[in-house]
Amino acid sequence: MARQRFKRIQAGRLVREALWTASFPNDTPKARAEKIKCTSAARQRMNDKYCWQKLKMVLAANFSYTDLVLTLTYDDDHLPRNKEAARKLLKKFLQELRVYRKNRHAELKYIYCTEDKHGDARIHHHVVINGTGADYDLIYSLWTHGTELHFEPVDSYGYEELAKYITKEPRECGHSSVGGRSWVPSLNLQKPDVKPTEWVDGNMRLEPPANAYILQTESFENEWGRFSYVEYLLPAEPVAKKTRPRKKKK
Fold first, then answer.
1. Which label site among 20, 27, 126, 128 has the fewest CB atoms less than 10 Å from its CB?
2. Whether the Cβ atoms of residue 192 and residue 10 lie closer than 8 Å to each other
3. 227 φ, ψ to 5°?
4. What is the mean pLDDT of each run of 10 residues along the chain (250 residues)?
5. Distance separating alpha carbons of residues 245 and 241, to the nearest angstrom
């Protein structure tokens, strides 16, 4: 088997790998056509076309499964007149939380979206933040505009489903964005580690670590070439136990 092309992208624990046979100028037309199918399949898998795909990798690069997804709502007395007014209130909330953590030598990372079209069409926010296990009561106290503030761990969704959830409104309401962004990140987020595509031996196979959790696989092979793809989660590193946030009505 001819040498192959290999691509790897890692975002925190999330790893995506593709392996495929590339075409050469001296290939026959039939061989070239079949090998191009392998290259196209790899490119489709490794290139993030849609907003939720890009967001999935950013989430995985910056948030663990024990971090938090907040839903912030408004009661009738505090309901903003529009989304822009709502974003100003949310930015104030995040700024106050950032200052609190900075004074305690802790960092705030976040991604948020503001929605007002699905359900009862009432303005609300979804916010993913890194948890510290020490400032749940403060978070409750800073959000003074609604009757309830909901906490869920990231692992209630997983990275892909959380990304789809955060980007659901523009997609479901007919405003799907190819390459666009409907979510707002903090400036201190890390980017996924995208390794350069490299040539590897024709006998190489994709072999995730034995203790990895396989999320997706895909492959095909013909007499001229092969394509394979795998997406998996590396084992989580042990972390200090965090106190779970309690549900609380304001």
1. 27
2. yes
3. -140, 140
4. 89 98 89 92 92 96 97 94 96 97 97 86 94 92 88 96 92 55 93 96 94 96 92 84 56
5. 12
For 115, phi then psi, to 5°, come to -125, 155
Look at residue 41 in the predicted model and tell me its pLDDT. Answer: 94
What pLDDT shows up at residue 121?
Answer: 78
Name the residue among 231, 167, 225 with its Cα closest to residue 5: 225
**Whole-number Å distance between alpha carbons of 165 and 142:** 25
Residue 9: the pLDDT is: 98
Q: Which residues contact 121 (CB under 8 A, 6 or more apart)?
A: none
User: What is the model's pLDDT at position 140?
Assistant: 92
Going by C-beta distance under 8 Å and a sequence separation of 6 or more, which residues neighbour residue 178?
Answer: 49, 50, 51
CB 21 within 8 A of CB 2: yes
What the block records as the tokens of 93 is: 């909330």
Residue count (the chain): 250
pLDDT of residue 249: 47
Q: How far apart are CA 32 and CA 242, in angstroms?
A: 55
Which pLDDT value is given to residue 195? 96
Token look-up 């990798």 returns 57
